[in-house]
Structure formats: structure tokens, C-alpha cells
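S1.2 Input.
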Amino acid sequence: MIVITAPTGNIGRRLLPLLLRAAPARGEELRVVVRDPARLPEAVRERVEVVAGSHGDAATVERAFAGADAVFWLVPPDASAAPDEVYSGFTRPAARAFAAHGVGHVVGVSALGRGTPQAHRAGLVTASLAMDDLIAGSGAAYRALACPSFYENLLEEAGSIREHGVFTDTADAGRPVPLVAVADVAATAAGLLLDRSWSGVGSVPVLGPQDLSPDDRARIMAEELGRPVRYRRRSLDELRSELLGYGLDGAFVEGVVDMKRAKDRGLDGGVDRSPRAVPATGFAQWCAQTLKPAVLTAPEAVDAH
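S1.3 Output.
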């Protein structure tokens, strides 16, 4: 029995079809934990066991992890609380349930940075690494998918790219950093969940094929979109003011700012790209397949569907 948390999220909705295709031939049953089962396609609901509720809730995970051999663990985004509460606070009931039910294997979505000088004050990343330690202490074999920033973060900039040819971040324009597509994270998770020959505790870096600076990304986006694109760097103070203006929790906002600062100081750097079973998605490929439709589709057309 494989249990999938957050099956309707960006990673989960890509992971679930991979498991649905492969699980029957391996004799694997699938169970999902979802707040609103109606968000799952009917065809999916017919093929999985559904546990309704939040996987941060003790009673829900007690039901969900009973009889489970493996669990895919992902903490949902939550900007209403401090980072430690968002990650470890949400995960603590699950860690107890892993131990109580003898769950053998857990695959979790985490972050790069462990062992770096920046990791002790990297905001959301520091909290994510503490979550890994909590799960590792449950007795389950654990693999943390150590991810850099996602290509998909650029989808939040689609309107600005469409209207002004500009995307923004706080990073040095010339600093190359690793990035990854969420589909690659899902594929890596599927491989680990289906082939549980691994043991112990460790992390698996999940990276795109090359490090890219913001200026590199601007050049590639311009080539794929067929229009000028440039990068504008904004300050951490500007980012902080914008996020606080949205009404987000102050401690969470500082966690984002600390993470951005740590990344710009090399938090994600120096990771070995070992050979992978699943080919990594190139940034140009992702731009052509995912970003271009988002940028070139007018908002009115999106609302009409």
C-alpha cells in the first residue's frame, strides 16, 4: 500500500498518474489523503482508496497510514504561520503515525542546503530540513527529495512577462543556480516509492540539467517566447514589504526573506549531478511546453474555460 498526500497539488497531481500506471503490475494498492475528494477526477477516485481530511490532522493520518508500506509526504503551502509550525508542526502527527504503524518507507519533498554554512539561517529551507530530521526519527527509511527552486515559480510572473517583458526576483542576475521542473520531482518520487530496495536515511538531489542565472533564463525565455524578456532584481526589503502587504504572517515572511538571502549566498550551490534514471527536463523545453502557453494566452481566454 502506497499512500499519497497532497495528491491535487503541483507535484501530487503529476505523481498520481505515474503510480496509477505502474502500481497494478506490481500488485500495489494506492491510497490518497485529500481535504476535498471532489477535486480528484472521478476516474482517479474509482481506482484509489480515499481518506478525506488534512494530513496534518492526527486522526486523519492514523486512518491513512494504517497498513501502509510507503508514504509520499508533502507539506502544503501555508503563509499563515511561522516556518517551524508550517513544517515540523504540521508533520509531527504524521511522524508519530509512521512509528505507530511501522511504515517502512517515506519519500518527502524538501530542499537543498543541508551541510552548507547558510543552512542554519535559511528560513523556509531551515524549517524543511528540521522536518526531515523529524521524519528520520520515526524509524522509517526516508529519502528527502532535495529540491532547488522550481521552474514553475515563473508562472507567477506570466502576466508581467506578457505585459512588460519582465520577470523579477531577489537573486544576483549573473549567479547560476540549479532549478528543477515539478514533473521531475514527481518522477523521482515515483521511482523511489515503487522500488523500495533502499534503506536508511538520506537525501536525493533533484536538479535540472544545468545551473542557470536569471540572465540565462531571460535569454532562453526570449528565444522560446519570440519576444524580449529581461530580468529586474528587487531588494529583499521590497520583497518583504510586498508580502506583508498581502497580509501574510510576519514570521513566515521573514522565513521567505531569509531563504532568498541564503540562496543568493550559495545555499543551493555545489551539488553533484549524478546520473539519473529519469532524464531531467531542460529549461528551454519547459518554457516551450508550459511557460509559453501561460504567457501567450490572454487572461480573458483563461477565464472563459
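S1.4 Remarks. The longest helix spans residues 83-101.
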